[in-house]
Design goal:
11 helices
């Protein structure tokens, strides 16, 4: 007599079980985001305008102010890392609006219906923001070379710069995703994004050193992750550049804040589709 009992339902594979499966999700999400960039190269051209204006106009004008850059460093050299950080920040901070578009188009529900860990989805989007940040770095490096900024092209420094760019872009893209998960509408997100971007930028050492800030602003800047990103990039970009906090401290702060934001974003991302 044959056994007519129904076979148990197939178990959904647990992508948390192996690191390779987890990484496939991360790089798969990243690749899907990067494809958008390949199909819209005009975006790269428009994003190159901002660093050009800051370095050519603002940098050349402010370089006439003596004593603005510390230690006798030429102000344009001092500014280059800050403008690179600003360019990456502006790319990353509005990254969350793509998640709102994905929800409205139904793409988010497909992500959430998959067995993929939420943290892998968040990391994939953060990594894609890092790729976009590296395109900004290429623009700033070329422009800095044309302006005779004392940039370093040592392989170790370039690798370190790329790591910091990816980490910083991922951090602020994840922060942006958290904001998108909380506000859930494009209009509110754009309003909040415009409100927080300039304080993050100006409450840092991107365009002036910490030493000339009033005490209260210096305290705020030390709590700002962007300050540590700028500090690391100045040490890595410039010939003979040094880090005020130490590269180990810069990296630890950025990595620690990024890890916390990924945990928060992973918890909120699943609720965004509700």
């Amino acid at each position: 007599m044959s056994d007519c009992r129904a076979a148990p339902p197939a178990r959904m594979p647990d992508l948390r079980a192996t690191a390779p499966a987890y990484l496939r999700v991360v790089f798969g999400v990243c690749a899907a985001e990067v494809q958008k960039l390949r199909h819209d190269p005009f975006e790269l051209a428009t994003r190159a305008i901002q660093p050009v204006l800051w370095l050519v106009l603002f940098g050349e004008v402010m370089s006439q102010v003596r004593g603005l850059a510390p230690g006798g460093v030429r102000y344009l050299d001092f500014l280059a890392a800050g403008i690179l950080t600003q360019s990456v920040l502006f790319v990353a901070i509005f990254y969350g609006i793509a998640a709102i578009w994905e929800r409205d188009l139904g793409i988010l529900h497909r992500y959430l219906a998959s067995p993929a860990p939420r943290s892998a989805l968040v990391l994939g989007k953060a990594l894609s923001a890092g790729v976009r940040g590296l395109t900004q770095a290429a623009v700033v490096y070329v422009l800095a070379g044309l302006l005779h900024v004392a940039i370093s092209l040592q392989p170790a420094r370039l690798i370190g710069m790329m790591l910091i760019i990816v980490l910083g872009a991922g951090l602020f893209a994840t922060f942006s995703l958290i904001v998108a998960c909380l506000v859930k509408t494009r209009e509110r997100f754009m309003g909040i994004g415009q409100v927080v971007t300039m304080p993050i930028f100006f409450a840092s050492n991107a365009i002036y050193p910490l030493e000339i800030m009033p005490a209260w602003l210096r305290a705020v800047a030390r709590l700002n992750p962007l300050t540590y990103e700028v500090d690391a990039l100045r040490a890595l970009m410039l010939r003979g550049g040094t880090s005020g906090f130490g590269l180990g401290t810069d990296f630890a702060v950025l990595a620690g804040v990024f890890a916390v934001l990924v945990v928060v974003a992973a918890r909120l991302y699943g609720r965004m589709g509700n």
